[in-house]
Amino acid sequence: MRVSDVLSSKGSATIYTIRPEATLSDLLDALAEHNVGALVVSTDGTTMLGIVSERDVVRKIRDFDEPTNVTVEEIMTADVRVCTPDDSFATLMTIMTEHRVRHVPVLDGEELVGVLSIGDAVKQRMDQLEFERDQLNNYVSGGG
């Protein structure tokens, strides 16, 4: 299974982005509005400058005396772990586990084509396990 398969099964190709000059308030509003845990930081919606997550807010905002003046660019993660549509599902899981990240942007060359969350990965794995269980039950019961 490939990352492209996970993206296809996700059900939504929407990529939520935020501009680097957006305020903390803008960020919090966007995270809540879209019901997501991270946004890709971009000026054009297709080129990634970084990613900003709820974790970035929690861990970095305390370093500022006046959080209301903080911009996304000041708290975003610029060294982003990414994958490609051709990467295996196992590669995606390894990236998330080894780097302790919950959101992985998917790049096709330089173009942002999706974002996968740990929730997307867990759902995919659960679907795989259910399929395997059903196949084994069918085999054991003589149906296959």
Model description:
The structure is a single chain. The model has no long low-confidence stretch (mean pLDDT 90). The chain has helices at residues 3-9, 24-34, 54-60, 72-75, 89-99, 118-140, and strands at residues 17-18, 38-41, 50-53, 103-108, 111-117. The chain is 44% helix and 16% strand. The chain has 144 residues and is an alpha+beta fold. The protein has a three-stranded mixed β-sheet with strand order 1-2-3. Strands 4-5 form a two-stranded antiparallel ribbon. The protein has one domain: CBS-domain (Roll). The chain is built from six helices and five strands; from the N terminus they run αβαββαααββα. A hairpin with an 8-residue loop joins strand 2 and strand 3 (50-53).
What's the quick description here?
The protein is 44% helix and 16% strand. The protein is of the alpha+beta class.
Keywords:
single chain, 3-stranded mixed beta sheet, alpha+beta, CBS-domain, 144 residues, two-stranded antiparallel sheet
Figure out the total of helices.
Answer: 6
Biggest sheet: strands side by side, in what order? 1-2-3
Mean pLDDT: 90
Order of helices and strands: HEHEEHHHEEH
Tally the beta strands. 5
Q: Any idea what the CATH architecture is? A: Roll
Structural class: alpha+beta
